[in-house]
Amino acid sequence: MASVPVWARVYVACAVAGALVCLAPAPDVHVPWWAVALLATLYAGCEQATRCRLLGRNAPRVMGTFFPVLLAGAFLLPPQAAALVAVPGALLTRVEQRPRRLRRVWRAARLGLAVWAASRVHWALGGPDAVAEPDFPDALVPAVAAVLAFGAVLTALDGGILALAERVPVRNAWRGLFPRTLAPAAVHGLAGLMMAVLWRSHYGPVAALLVLLPMYVSGWVFTQYHRERAAHQATIRALVQAVDIKDGYTRGHSERVGQASMMIARELGMDDERVEVLRFAGILHDVGKLGVPTRLLRKNGPLTPEERRVIELHPEYGHEMVRGIGFLGEARSAILHHHERLDGSGYPYGLTGTQIPECARVVAVADAFDAMTSTRCYRRARPVAVALEELERCAGAHFDPRMVEALVRALGRHGWHPAVTADGDEQRGNVPPQSTPQRAEAGS
């Protein structure tokens, strides 16, 4: 929306007009204006609280809109009054992208329409009586219907603005949008219902406000998790970039090995946490190259026995470099042992069979696969099918057959579409092999 097209501005104007119609008071409906003012102030305060240093500067992108107060308003107030709860907070919220004024107006209009729709559905299904005298689970029916209406309106409006302002193709603008909108709305809707029930009980509004405390704490925890995860990613990215700069011939190799390792781990049925660890292991498996002389990494032609021994030290260098990075977990042993072979012919310790950690056996297959399907200074890339045949031939002697079979199944199901290529002028996997010097794969 940096430079907003005319039709997108018209769309926003229509949304604003619709919201103004929804805000028009009904003469025969009693509105508790003190409750509207309290909820509107509370919502505005919750939106402003994302600037608090306790949550950090990135909190707004993580926490998003504070839906519990809006939905509590939908459960407690008539539709036109409920829609008004969202307006002050939306107009005062922080906006980082231009045009800021238009974005604030759009935010106020979309939230006002969504809350109005939720309140309308809730009241039509007898929701106010269910909140005043809750009889669970029957009281959940109007609340669930209201949350669905809330999510549906947001989805419809957001898809339209994506198509008109962001120029997303119409066939893709609404794809997957409703589930992504409904998930937080459902969780926040339950908190909003708890607020509404406590508000109408003899405990009163003050008790209802206590519901927000655990929501705020959970938002803080969620923010800290994302901040820590971003720090992990930045650490890994810096190490990988250093390796890529030092060994330009294998640029992108680390990311591709991480991708292949993740595919194998998922095919083996590992849980998401281990899959992530295997991805880290694949990405960082060659970080020890930072301790190897650059002239050896970039040498054309075969290595001498002494040069081979120097390069074969890179797993131990890598293990020492990441020893103190706690979040890597078992990825550290994969970095150390990814060049071990089942028959004991590998390095650095000549481990055999199950002496080799499982994560290292995964990375070994992923590393060999990408090394064969990438163009290097000493040979051309092999087609994917040829590389898989070679892995299957070496399964049981060099590579764990389970890992090889898992990679074959994963590639058969998903194909191989690496995001980064080793050589911008070559199409990986489509270059026929040719006779080249038999340089050791120690540095792959």
From TrEMBL:
It comes from the Bacteria. The keyword Lipid metabolism does not apply. Residues 250-372 form the HD domain. SUPFAM superfamilies: HD-domain/PDEase-like. The chain crosses the membrane at residues 6-24, 70-93, 105-123, 143-165, 177-199, 205-223. NCBIfam families: HDIG. This is HD-GYP domain-containing protein. The lineage of its organism: Bacteria, Bacillati, Actinomycetota, Actinomycetes, Kitasatosporales.
